[in-house]
Design goal:
xylan degradation, 6 helices, Tachylectin-2, Chain A, GINT1_N, eight-stranded mixed sheet, 2 domains, five-stranded antiparallel sheet, mainly beta
Length: 511
């Protein structure tokens, strides 16, 4: 197979500089055909991208930066293309003999200007990949922009996810085309200069925030609930939420409660801001709340978070997120709660965040947010299935089964209610961990997947934190998490002698 990218010469970007496209681990040849400019870009766009490179990206190039090409060159030309991917807004080449002619659309319009227009209006676009021969939409996604710094970063994220979709289509795997609402942003939006100026101002504000505060600072909420919980009501109403106290220079997140050997513990990510690496810790609960001290239970040289727990074969197992290490590892509890041994590697060679397993119709299904290239890390859902917890784990026929920032990333245990399977998901529309959603899984098999988001939950009077991104329950005990502003009080005190050096928030304050 030979893939041809059709791109505009005058607006060549660094992401276009490639000889291959990775499809299921195979490097498939790519050649570039440079075309004339169909539409001019906003004046000074490349200069603004260069400014962002210096200020926002700390001197590193992004995929949106200008690519300098040799005049009249045809990059990587190897022969007649089997597939054309047309990134321009020009008409389809009527002389093309390619078997497949793909056209990315951004909020329904082709070309880079359409992607830029959506970004400047305040949101990333919904991306469609259309077969121009018959007009059929082959795939659709809504990417997340949690790591997209500035206009250039947002454009790079959009193009990275476009390539993810192209690779999935060309893999031959059946695609599940979701129904996704396009951006509701209205008005003309900001001009490129105004967008970049605002981005620089936001970047400076974030640096000041990080200098003055531990950021982000997550905290765990808990309550005892004898009635219907969040998954039943679809909201955060009910008994008052309490906050698990932390030492201030650590944050707690991703709570998973479990009762084992007659004792109940909540396991969670415990991150020391001074080091920037998470471990897994736990605290015991009795009938009145947390008791005793927080106990470290698992640490590795790499970052750990999201301690998913599962009982299987009379044993208790944990799958902490270790996506930065590039695997999904299974740990066995050899002494509850504080001794765990690495038992098996379930998946390797991929960044998969927040692995969560459910049993359904005789199979185990493992869900996780897959990181592909330079795009976001919360928008692409991969599913694997196995007959046994130890595997072997096989990929779903349509991986990635969904690319949608609002309903992909796992946010806690699956729950079966009245015969229906539910999964909490992160809604990252307004940024990473900004809100929760509750999705009903309508169809799940090794070849099919369909879910419908029934409820959306955001911080508010009932949970006055700034974010909300995990939900779990064990018996009467419900847990969630969120973030708050956590000033570096001791740092302030050392510079202001009159300050009270011991000023630290109480366990239930500073939400």
């Amino acid at each position: 197979m030979i893939i041809e990218f059709r791109c505009e010469r005058e607006h060549a970007r660094r992401w276009m500089s490639r000889d291959t496209l990775s499809i299921d681990g195979r490097d498939v040849p790519v050649q570039i055909t440079w075309t004339a400019t169909a539409e001019p870009r906003p004046t000074g766009l490349d200069a603004l991208f260069e400014l962002e490179r210096v200020v926002l990206h700390k001197g590193k190039h992004s995929g949106a930066n200008r690519l300098h090409i040799v005049p009249q060159s045809t990059q990587g030309r190897t022969g007649t293309a089997d597939v054309i991917v047309d990134f321009t807004s020009g008409a389809r080449d009527p002389n093309s003999s390619a078997k497949l002619y793909l056209r990315p659309l951004f909020n329904g319009v082709s070309g880079e200007n359409a992607a830029l227009a959506a970004i400047l209006a305040g949101d990333l676009p919904v991306i469609d990949i259309v077969n121009e021969v018959d007009g059929i939409v082959l795939d659709r996604c809504h990417p997340s922009g949690e790591i997209a710094a500035g206009l250039s970063g947002a454009l790079e994220t959009v193009m990275a996810r476009t390539l993810t979709m192209v690779a999935a289509i060309l893999s031959g795997r059946p695609r599940i085309v979701p129904q996704l609402a396009r951006s509701t942003a209205t008005g003309a939006g900001r001009g490129p200069t105004a967008y970049v100026v605002r981005g620089l101002a936001v970047s400076i504000a974030k640096e000041i925030y990080r200098l003055c505060c531990y950021a982000p600072h997550w905290h765990v909420g808990w309550r005892f609930n004898d009635g219907a919980g969040v998954l039943q009501t679809g909201d955060l109403s009910g008994p008052h939420w309490n906050v698990l106290g932390d030492p201030g220079n650590h944050f707690y997140a991703d709570p998973f409660p479990v009762t084992w050997q007659g004792r109940t513990f909540v396991f969670f990510e415990d991150l020391d801001h001074r080091i920037g690496k998470g471990i897994i810790s736990a605290i015991e609960f009795n009938d009145t709340g947390p008791t005793g001290k927080v106990v470290p239970v698992l640490e590795e040289p790499w970052h750990l978070s999201y301690p998913f727990l599962i009982e299987d074969g009379g044993e208790l197992w944990m799958i902490p997120e270790s996506s930065t290490h590039g695997d999904v590892a299974l740990y066995k509890c050899v002494r509850f709660p504080d001794k765990w041994e690495r038992h098996a590697t379930l998946l390797s060679g991929l960044e998969l965040a927040d692995a969560t397993i459910t049993r359904h119709n005789g199979l185990h299904y493992l869900f996780g947010a897959w990181r592909d290239g330079t795009g976001g890390y919360s928008d692409s859902l991969e599913i694997f299935f196995a007959e046994h917890l130890l595997g072997p784990w096989l990929p779903h026929a349509s991986n990635p089964v969904l690319i949608d920032r609002a309903s992909t990333r796992p946010a806690g245990n699956f729950v079966t209610l009245n015969g229906k399977l539910w999964r909490p998901v992160q809604n990252c529309t307004d940024g990473y961990g900004a809100a929760l959603a509750l999705a009903e899984v309508i169809e799940l098999s090794p070849t099919a997947f369909r879910q419908i988001v029934r409820h959306s939950l955001k911080p508010g009077p009932l949970w006055p934190g700034r974010k909300l991104h995990t939900l779990n329950r064990c018996g009467r005990l419900e847990v969630i998490d969120g973030s708050r502003v956590q000033p570096k009080m001791r740092a302030f005190a050392s510079r202001l002698p009159s300050a009270v050096s011991s000023a630290q928030p109480s366990p239930s304050s500073a939400l």
